[in-house]
Backbone:
């Protein structure tokens, strides 16, 4: 079973999947990664005390680090925050918290889309909206989760399983992304 975060990594660069599952290596935790994790913990503690106004909801119940999986998809993960509300357009809302100053990237949107698929399977209702909470600016961004996004997620999950099962060494998504990658030193064909 793969993790939802693997989908985010796959969209960033498929080689991350290879070095995680096919040829596991000791990856170095970068300063950026450690700093982001620390800020994430601090923000979670603050989030527990806030209202839901920033999500456009009047009331609801929060579940942090919400575990969810699907045998059918071969996918599991821990959602940063699940908001259960009977006052919104859908019964549950997935929320991913990110420490970034670069805006909301496609890989994070697809990660949210993967959680939407897992929640749809669990609750039996369509999930069309979720949120990405940007920690430095303390803002929740409503993200529309389209059928196109969900279809891409399903295809990406299949591609990830293919890399793992066939031990396929994929091409990098973009060489520009290699600079900050924790697997950089293992891509000898690039450096």
Residues:
């Amino acid at each position: 079973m793969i993790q939802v975060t693997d989908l985010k990594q796959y969209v960033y660069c498929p080689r991350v999947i290879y070095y995680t599952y096919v040829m596991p290596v000791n990856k170095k935790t970068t300063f950026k990664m450690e700093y982001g994790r620390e800020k994430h913990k601090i923000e979670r503690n603050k989030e527990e005390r806030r209202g839901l106004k920033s999500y456009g909801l009047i009331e609801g119940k929060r579940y942090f680090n919400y575990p969810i999986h699907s045998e059918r998809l071969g996918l599991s993960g821990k959602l940063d925050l699940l908001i259960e509300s009977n006052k919104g357009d859908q019964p549950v809302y997935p929320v991913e918290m990110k420490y970034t100053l670069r805006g909301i990237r496609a890989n994070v949107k697809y990660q949210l889309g993967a959680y939407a698929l897992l929640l749809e399977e669990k609750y039996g209702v369509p999930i069309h909206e979720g949120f990405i909470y940007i920690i430095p600016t303390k803002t929740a961004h409503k993200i529309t989760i389209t059928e196109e996004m969900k279809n891409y997620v399903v295809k990406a999950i299949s591609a990830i399983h293919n890399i793992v099962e066939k031990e396929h060494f994929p091409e990098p998504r973009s060489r520009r992304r290699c600079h900050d990658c924790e697997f950089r030193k293992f891509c000898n064909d690039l450096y």
In short: The mean pLDDT is 89. The beta strands are 2-3, 61-70, 75-84, 92-98, 129-134, 139-144. The chain has five helices and six strands.
